[in-house]
Amino acid sequence: MKKSNGTTEFIMTGLSEIPGHQTLLFVSFLTMYLLNVLGNMIIIVLIRFDSHLRTPMYIFLCNLSFVDVCFTSSIVPKMLANIVSETKTISLVDCILQLYFFLCFACTECFLLAVMAYDRYVAICNPLHYMVIISRRLCAVLVIGSWVVSALHSLLHSLMASTLTFCGTNKVHHFYCDMAPLLKLSCSDISLNIMLIYTEGGLPLLIPFLIVLASYARIIQTIVKIRSTNGRSKAFSTCSSHLTVVSLFYGTIAFMYLRPSSTFSLSSDRIVSVVYTVIAPMLNPFIYSLRNKEVKGALKKLLSKANFLNHQ
User: Fold this and answer.
1) What is the pLDDT of residue 2?
2) Distance between CA atoms of 152 and 96, rounded to whole angstroms?
3) What is the value of pTM for the model shown?
4) Which of 114, 128, 229, 279 could join 208 via S-S bond, C-beta 3.0 to 4.6 A?
């Protein structure tokens, strides 16, 4: 473990230690990060300023876009700085902070995706009572609850990680501070951390996932009962974008964390991590906008208004 003036530092190996790959990695991740921020901020602006998009579904989508920006921002800027830096170090305090924010935003995304699945369930299975069930008060409770539970969950695991003692090599074989590579560096007893991960740690992933499965099971049952092909197509189109995002996010994150620790491979896990930390948040605004007439309509109106103001 490398110590300097009483502080502890780790060396982040990133995705590749080959010098020739650094420029390509920097350009690729900078491009994806900028697309992420731009795309999600456009979604947030459209929902904020278009009155037709101030419905529960778009309120949840606005929060999801904000989480996606924060989620990637907790990882990519430091990663880009390490790529162009010769030292590629991160202090123990900064590492624990990054772990906290990574867990917080990842868990919030899980809960928001579950909330959005429930919203689609009510919209398709109980359309006449939708505005009564999904009230503004319930929206606020679901969104705030998602943030609070995620913050407490990430605080617990971050505090547990901060109690660990690190010795031997100080190389973190990852491009951000995740729990698995940190536990591999610890020379203290990690049995309590492991137990916590496989008990409470899985709940913020498992519970939302079960809510998503239950919601879509009922949605599919309802859609199958619709007699007209046009009606089935219309009903499915209202949740197809969300189902795509859920499949992309949960598919990769479940592969990472819902498997035995003996099967962990840091080299392959780093590649899979790129999907749900960088690629999925970047694709989300495009998935929702390309298949959503209301979002595309709001974007056209915003562009038309901006063009009109420029010509005045």
Assistant:
1) 43
2) 15
3) 0.89
4) 114
